[in-house]
Design a protein that fits this description.
Elements: H1 2-59, H2 62-73
Length: 91
């Protein structure tokens, strides 16, 4: 009878350890996914940061800033004329 009790305790212990191991593996998988998402987000932000630095450097030059203002807001300096070129009509 003592062998059966010992065997039942052994099987119960193996089941408990297996269940705990499964839980740890599930948590590890979930955390690995979160880490991967965080790394992807960090890479996107790093790329965006580099693009913004380049844009700031570009717009830091007065001639580029004026060029950008002219193109975005249809701005012209007081001594400049605007010429509008329209495509030919094919009737």
């Amino acid at each position: 009878m003592g062998k059966y009790v010992l065997f039942a305790i052994f099987i119960t212990a193996i089941g408990f350890v297996g269940y705990q191991t499964y839980g740890m593996l599930r948590d590890y998988r979930d955390l690995s996914g979160e880490v991967s998402e965080a790394k992807d987000g960090a890479n996107r932000l790093t790329n965006e940061n580099e693009e913004l630095k380049e844009r700031i450097e570009y717009l830091g030059k007065p001639e580029n800033l004026i060029k950008e203002i002219k193109s975005r807001f249809n701005y012209r300096l007081p001594d400049e004329r605007t010429i509008i070129v329209a495509p030919e009509r094919n009737n």
